[in-house]
From TrEMBL:
This is Exosortase A. It comes from Altericroceibacterium indicum. Residues 315-504 form the Methanolan biosynthesis EpsI domain. The lineage of its organism: Bacteria, Pseudomonadati, Pseudomonadota, Alphaproteobacteria, Sphingomonadales. One of its GO terms (molecular function) is peptidase activity. The keyword Metal-binding does not apply.
């Protein structure tokens, strides 16, 4: 009698019909991890290094636990190869491809995680996938996202904080995300936006809503509270820091904030939420999370199950789908626009070039740009603007015109984001502040092909379209900026220069010598 190797003995506890599909799924996952290794390494780095995403380190363990909760019912089902899962895999690969050709890591990571989710449907079929529906959806939380909400959360926190500050009798004035009080000037910085607690609370809330509730009304109500509560609590945290600083000083308040108002404060908030919600839990302790009999008898799933295919054929097709996506990506990434050897800021009617002498040094970041220009113009009325221009032959990770940390607000400098402004002809406008008293208005435009926009996502869509269609258009980033002076307001100076240089798209093309 032939015995199994020791490393395969664990498979003896599996039902016979599960062994081959799980083997194929395991091999497919290993292949997908290898093919998308860079994306998984990038995500793992964010999970480990960024406090905003540290909670994601627990999600793989939670996923294993969720599957174990279902295993007794799942083993009653029979996995099967299912060719429509290849469509889901192709969709995930396309999302990854769009991210790769545009340099948008978030899309690449969504595609990498989505490919794992899709492969479950390919090798285990619709019945097992239905039983694993929540764990599969919960896998989406492996993607580190949420930093995009930081500016919005900063403004919300600032408004909540100033309201509570006034209610507590402390005189204060607010300008954007800066709050001026008798105890000092406070900034609702990115780290104070509360995004890390919001994301962690949503992840916890989804898990609790699924595990502890049966009623959808209660689930939705709990999720609303779990989403709103950390935002409100973060406003209270910021107010508490300001209130303590009025009597104890900024240094004491900052230290207290780091010690108590970190995870301790939000741990109390989480415990309070769960303590109150406990009385509304309506799922019995012995209630199974899935019903294998109901899944087997479902007419809809039965119809889906008709589209079956051999597991090995599905494996070969899956590899072909992913391989095709990566080959297309490799071809698209070879495209680069032809650029001149040298570029210069042009003459502008009514304006002359002057030395660049800002009160506080300001130099927008444009990593990976093939050409960069930074200079100043002044008109006869004494209005002055600063121009930053960056030219890229292509867009990819590490050389993105609208990437994180790129553009007008450079991290780890004296400049802080203050507030958004009404756009000027589609440009993205924002106030910046340095040293508490120097204000600068910056308006950003991106240009590629015939597209002129201040919207980063619109730029990404244009870059994606160019790459997929084989067009090698250059990408440009222009920032028209001005320091706000009592005799020469920044908005008026920028608008005057814009009117002299327009049409702006043609002006930007002229610098790059593109038709």
């Amino acid at each position: 009698m032939q015995t199994r190797p020791a490393y395969l003995k664990w498979t003896e506890s599996l039902p016979e019909g599960w062994r081959k599909p799980l083997l194929l799924l395991a091999v497919a996952w290993l292949a997908l991890f290898a093919l998308f290794y860079r994306d998984w390494a990038e995500m793992a780095g964010q999970w480990w290094d960024s406090s905003t995403y540290n909670h994601i380190l627990l999600i793989p363990l939670i996923l294993i636990w969720l599957v174990r909760l279902r295993w007794e019912e799942l083993r009653k089902l029979t996995p099967s190869g299912w060719w429509p899962g290849l469509i889901l895999l192709a969709a995930a690969v396309i999302v990854w491809l769009l991210g790769a050709v545009s340099g948008l890591n978030l899309l690449m990571q969504i595609g990498a995680v989505g490919s794992l989710m899709a492969s479950v449907t390919i090798f285990l079929g619709p019945r097992v996938s239905a039983g694993l529906l929540f764990p599969l959806c919960y896998m989406a939380l492996l993607v580190p996202f949420g930093d995009e909400m930081v500016p919005f959360l900063q403004l919300i926190t600032a408004k909540l904080t100033i309201a509570l500050t006034h209610l507590s009798g402390v005189p204060a004035q607010i300008e954007g995300v800066f709050i001026d009080t008798p105890g000092g000037l406070f900034e609702v910085a990115e780290a104070c936006s509360g995004v890390k607690f919001l994301i962690a609370m949503v992840a916890l809330g989804l898990l609790v809503a699924h595990v502890c509730f049966q009623s959808w009304k209660r689930r939705i109500g709990f999720m609303v509270v779990a989403t709103v509560l950390p935002i409100l609590a973060n406003g209270v945290r910021a107010w508490g820091t300001i209130y303590i600083a009025q009597s104890q000083g900024i240094e004491f308040a900052a230290g207290f904030d780091h010690i108590f108002y970190g995870w301790i404060f939000f741990g109390i908030i989480m415990a309070a939420l769960l303590g109150v919600a406990w009385h509304f839990f309506d799922r019995p302790g012995n209630d199974p999370f899935i019903d294998a009999a109901a899944i087997s008898q479902s007419p809809f799933i039965t119809r889906l199950d008709q589209f079956s295919m051999s597991g090995w054929v599905a494996f070969v097709c899956a590899i072909c789908v992913v391989g095709a996506g990566q080959a297309w990506c490799h071809h698209a990434m070879q495209l680069e626009a032809a650029l001149p050897a040298k570029i210069n800021l042009p003459e502008v009617s009514g304006w002359k070039r002057v030395d660049y002498t800002p009160q506080v040094w300001w130099e927008p970041r444009a990593r990976g740009a093939d050409h960069r220009l930074l200079g100043s113009y002044e008109n006869a009325a004494g209005e002055r603007v600063d121009i930053s221009y960056a030219l890229y032959s292509s867009q990819e990770d590490g050389r993105e015109a609208g990437g994180f940390g790129e553009g007008a607000l450079v991290p780890d400098t004296a400049w802080r984001w203050l507030e958004p402004v009404q756009p000027l002809d589609g440009g993205h406008a924002e106030w910046l502040q340095a040293n508490g008293n120097v204000k600068r208005l910056a308006v950003t435009w991106f240009r590629t092909g015939n597209v002129l926009t201040g919207n980063n996502m619109r730029l990404k869509l244009a870059n994606i379209t160019d790459r997929l269609l084989g067009r090698n258009n250059a990408t440009m980033a222009l920032i028209i900026s001005a320091e706000d002076r009592p005799d020469h307001p920044a908005p008026a100076a920028i608008e005057a220069f814009y009117n002299a240089a327009k049409p702006l798209g043609s002006w930007m093309d002229g610098i790059a010598h593109t038709p």
